[in-house]
Amino acid sequence: MIKLGIAEDHKQFREAIKRLIHTEKDIEIILEADNGRDLLEKLERVEPDTILMDIRMPLMNGIEARRFLEDL
Asked: How large is the average pLDDT for residues 36-65?
């Protein structure tokens, strides 16, 4: 089972992605975040195998969040 995190600020788009992913039996969404800061906070509690992340988000965009993830 692949544990997936999604970071996307547009709720409707995130919900559409979730609907598509839920059709896959070997992928489980374990984390949802509204922006890069939210993602980094939630990563303190859960550890996805991979993250699907928007690069344009408020507060902290995906590029900035990726830089922090490299240091983990």
From this structure: 95
Tell me: the pLDDT tens digits for 7-20? 999 999 999 999 99
Burial class (CB within 10 angstroms; exposed 0-12, middle 13-18, buried 19+) of 65? buried
Number of separate domains in the chain: 1
Name the residue range of residue 29's domain: 1-35
The DSSP call for residue 28 is E
CA torsion 62-60-56-8 (nearest 10°) is: 70
Report the SS3 class of residue 54: coil
